[in-house]
């Protein structure tokens, strides 16, 4: 099959003169030919796909665990609420919330970018990871 029909082919030449081929998929696919987040993280065979999916699933569970941890911190904050806004703003709990939010946001966007590889397998791993995380931690927040 012609390369032009399976995705936008992008040839890249490194500083050492090595040429690598990457595809920017425009539709969902099952090919084992993806670059995940970084140029050195490539899915080219079943083994690399399985490791990548395992890492993605753990990342999805981690995102949900961070949400739960933020919920616990917020719940404890409500019990010991300082009347002054400035004290609440610079409290250790608020600082922890902010750092956890940054981590949650960063991981969430990474998972979104992984989903945008349009690999059915990687997208499924994102969904499984987030769903497993919700199954483990989500019911505590309701």
Automatic annotation (TrEMBL):
Keywords: Copper, Copper transport, Ion transport, Membrane, Transmembrane, Transmembrane helix, Transport. GO terms for cellular component: membrane. InterPro entries: Cop_transporter. It comes from the Eukaryota. The chain crosses the membrane at residues 49-69, 89-112, 118-137. One of its GO terms (molecular function) is copper ion transmembrane transporter activity. It is found in: Membrane. Pfam families: Ctr. It is a multi-pass membrane protein. Its main location: membrane. PANTHER family: COPPER TRANSPORT PROTEIN, SOLUTE CARRIER FAMILY 31 COPPER TRANSPORTERS. Belongs to the copper transporter (Ctr) (TC 1.A.56) family. SLC31A subfamily. This is Copper transport protein.
């Amino acid at each position: 099959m012609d390369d032009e029909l399976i995705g936008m082919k992008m040839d890249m030449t490194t500083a050492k003169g090595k040429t690598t081929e990457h595809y920017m998929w425009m539709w969902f696919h099952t090919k084992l030919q993806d670059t995940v987040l970084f140029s050195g993280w490539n899915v080219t065979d079943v083994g690399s796909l399985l490791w990548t999916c395992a890492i993605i699933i753990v990342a999805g569970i981690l995102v949900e665990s961070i949400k739960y941890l933020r919920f616990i911190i917020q719940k404890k904050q409500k019990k010991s609420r300082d009347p002054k806004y400035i004290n609440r703003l610079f409290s250790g709990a608020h600082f922890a919330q902010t750092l956890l939010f940054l981590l949650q946001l960063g991981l969430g966007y990474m998972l979104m970018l992984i989903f945008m590889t349009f690999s059915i397998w990687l997208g499924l791993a994102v969904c499984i990871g987030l769903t497993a995380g919700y199954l483990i931690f989500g019911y505590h927040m309701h």
